[in-house]
Design goal:
The complex is a heterodimer of chains A (about 110) and B (about 120). With about 110 residues, chain A is mainly β. Chain A has strands at about 5, 10-15, 20, 25, 30-40, 45-50, 55-60, 65-70, 75-80, 85-95, 100-105, 105-110. Classes of the chains: A mainly beta (about 110), B mainly beta (about 120).
Amino acid sequence: AQSVTQLDSHVSVSEGTPVLLRCNYSSSYSPSLFWYVQHPNKGLQLLLKYTSAATLVKGINGFEAEFKKSETSFHLTKPSAHMSDAAEYFCVVSFNYGQNFVFGPGTRLSVLP
Amino acid sequence: EAGVAQSPRYKIIEKRQSVAFWCNPISGHATLYWYQQILGQGPKLLIQFQNNGVVDDSQLPKDRFSAERLKGVDSTLKIQPAKLEDSAVYLCASSPVRGSDTGELFFGEGSRLTVL
């Protein structure tokens, strides 16, 4: 069975400092992995995705994530946080290329001035 | 291109009443999903359609929830009768046909249900 763990329910950083949001997954198949962002009262938006090509994936707004099979991890990073990055972030695992998406519980990112 | 449209955006009802949500996916998207997102949790899949056929409804509480996708386009999710624990945001998402599947979900803004 597939599952996703997001180790931190809430992360708080200062503006201009690095962001690290952690995600671990379990899947019996070769997974596709995604990060989605949800701003307050907005729809979920894709940040980036891994689908068995390069293990370091770059997304929108300066975010990137690295797929590490040995650690079953797909952590999201950004070198320098911006106030507009404050939102809820969801790690998502899928197998069967785009079917059966399973969402993690989410990590709320706060950015302090 | 137009995004996924959902209505209503907000609905307040009393328990035991019924409610219906509507979703219009992106044109040409064969797969349509309904998710339930309870406050503080990640979205949970309720039902997945491929064209107008059901692919997965294993987590749909079928005693009170129903969904249909007529003609493989629009979809309606109904709750009857509603319970307090149904208070949540109901998200509709769509994705392209599998042959050119990007593996990406395109979400609507959701319908927020409050059951009193």
